[in-house]
Amino acid sequence: MTDSAIAPSKSATLPAGTLSCIHHIALNVKDMAASRHFYGEILGLHELRGAEVPETLKDLVAAGKVANFRLPDGLILDLFGEPDLLPPDADPTQQFTRANHMAFGIAPEQFDQAVTVLKQQNVAIDHGPVSRPTGRGIYFYDPDGFLLEIRCDPT
């Protein structure tokens, strides 16, 4: 390991505020149809179609290997079909990636409705709803066992 890898140069850093947002999150999914239904129908995310699909992904989307969703704040969620990819542990409570979970924000007055929908759709709940000084949350799994949260700020 070189000295520069241990102590990077101060001149090689980005100024605070340069990165403005998270542009997109990409998840590998085993069953594209189940994941599209989960994120599009159950969670109500807008799936990009036609001219909305980025030019670089049009062929993959047409082949059913990628699906893209846009959240109201502009964040893009990309799903990449990887039917042969298995997590190291079939038990979703055993963390299998460096990512811990992904949280979706919701208005406080819509939180209870979201919990009801998750339960009515028999979505696997990890825990919650929980109430904290920072708000309320419920943790649940997508069809591939990735931990998700729906949370709201305190009222």
Tag the structure with descriptive keywords.
155 residues; alpha/beta; 2,3-Dihydroxybiphenyl 1,2-Dioxygenase, domain 1; 2 domains; four-stranded mixed beta sheet; 19% helix; globular
Describe the structure.
- This protein has 155 residues and is α/β, with parallel strands linked by helices.
- It has two domains: 63 residues, 2,3-Dihydroxybiphenyl 1,2-Dioxygenase, domain 1; 56 residues, 2,3-Dihydroxybiphenyl 1,2-Dioxygenase, domain 1, CATH 3.10.180.10.
- Helices cover 19% and strands 28% of the residues.
- It is built from four helices and eight strands.
- The strands form two sheets. It has a four-stranded mixed sheet with strand order 1-4-3-2.
- It is globular and about 40 Å long.
- It starts with a helix and ends with a strand.
Task: Reconstruct the topology from this structure.
Blueprint (H helix, E strand, L loop, with lengths): L2 H4 L17 E6 L2 H11 L3 E2 L10 H5 L3 E5 L5 E6 L20 E4 L5 H10 L4 E8 L2 E7 L5 E6 L3
Parallel strand pairs: 1-4, 5-8
Antiparallel strand pairs: 2-3, 3-4, 6-7, 7-8
Summarize, please:
It contains four helices and eight strands. It has helices at 3-6, 32-42, 58-62, 111-120; strands at 24-29, 46-47, 66-70, 76-81, 102-105, 125-132, 135-141, 147-152. It has a four-stranded mixed sheet. Strands 5-8-7-6 form a four-stranded mixed sheet, with helices on one face.
